[in-house]
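[Discussion] Sanity-checking designs against the backbone

I'm trying to build intuition for which residues belong where. Below is a structure token string of 298 positions. I'd appreciate it if someone posts a full sequence so I can compare it with mine line by line.
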């Protein structure tokens, strides 16, 4: 299509994606209190609070870390942030489909197959990383709260807590995509499994360092909770890549199939020394098989 048609289609796809997110966000705004309770409940329980955020607002006799909201516009910002997060997550099938519908017509058949595999495995991996972060945060919060000096009261800003939970879920989810990216690079022939295997020492140390920086707590439990699954996924990616390399080498040794074209060798060859032709050279003697310069067939 011409460039103007591509831009027009992109505009329509983006409009549909934004409209879906906006509709879900508006609906989620009526339940933002429940969304905040769902996000903060594990953290509150880990620090000794047996009630949800809404119940804490009504009760004043609960001895635990207190959630605070400061500023006149902060409640509105919290409601908007919680609703928008729910809108992006719940409407993800729609905006992912719009993105795929825009990109798919320009892909070859094998590229579409790789893209289907990436989406099919990428979404569960991201959800798995977010689920792990959601269950690691309470342990991290308990360790951090236990460092509070005796006699001091710990006040937890609710907006900061929501930012922390969101950031941790996104970081854990993206970290779980790293092995899938390595497999996709191997399938496209950019990275070999043998080369990946040679990186295992650096990858183990690098993943541990990343986990130490990504987790907000200083405890080794949170770091190992993030690093261990990524280590396992990395070695699974190496195993899949090595198997794919062996399969590719075996297919190359067998040659192309009946419905595949063989590779042509277009390398120029040396034709040797060319004999020079001079103007005053005597003509070659006539061939005995020719009569008047013509063969018998002619």
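Best answer:
Here's mine. Compare freely.
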């Amino acid at each position: 299509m011409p460039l103007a048609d591509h831009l027009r289609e992109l505009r329509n796809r983006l409009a549909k994606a934004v409209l879906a997110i906006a509709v879900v966000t508006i609906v989620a705004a009526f339940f933002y209190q429940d969304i905040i309770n769902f996000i903060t409940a594990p953290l509150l329980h880990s620090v000794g609070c047996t009630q949800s955020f809404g119940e804490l607002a009504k009760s004043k006799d609960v001895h635990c870390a207190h959630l605070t909201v400061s500023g006149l516009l902060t409640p509105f910002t919290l409601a908007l942030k919680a609703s928008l997060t729910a809108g992006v997550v719940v409407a993800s099938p729609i905006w992912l489909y719009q993105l795929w519908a825009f990109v798919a017509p320009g892909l070859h058949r094998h590229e579409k197959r790789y893209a289907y595999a990436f989406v099919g495995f990428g979404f569960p991996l991201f959800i798995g990383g977010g689920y792990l972060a959601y269950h690691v945060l309470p342990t991290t919060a308990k360790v951090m709260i236990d460092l509070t000096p005796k006699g001091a009261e710990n006040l937890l800003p609710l907006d900061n807590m929501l930012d922390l939970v969101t950031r941790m879920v996104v970081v854990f989810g993206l970290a779980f995509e790293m092995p899938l990216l390595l497999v996709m690079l191997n399938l496209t022939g950019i990275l070999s499994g043998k080369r990946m295997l040679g990186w295992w020492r650096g990858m183990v140390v690098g993943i541990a360092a990343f986990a130490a920086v990504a987790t907000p707590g200083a405890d080794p439990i949170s770091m190992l909770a993030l690093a261990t699954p990524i280590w396992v996924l990395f070695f699974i990616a190496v195993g899949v890549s090595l198997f794919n390399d062996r399969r590719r080498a075996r297919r190359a040794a067998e040659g192309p199939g009946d419905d595949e074209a063989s590779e042509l060798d277009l390398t120029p060859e040396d034709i040797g020394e060319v004999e020079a032709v001079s103007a005053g050279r005597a003509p070659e003697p006539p061939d005995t098989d020719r009569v008047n310069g013509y063969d018998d067939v002619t």
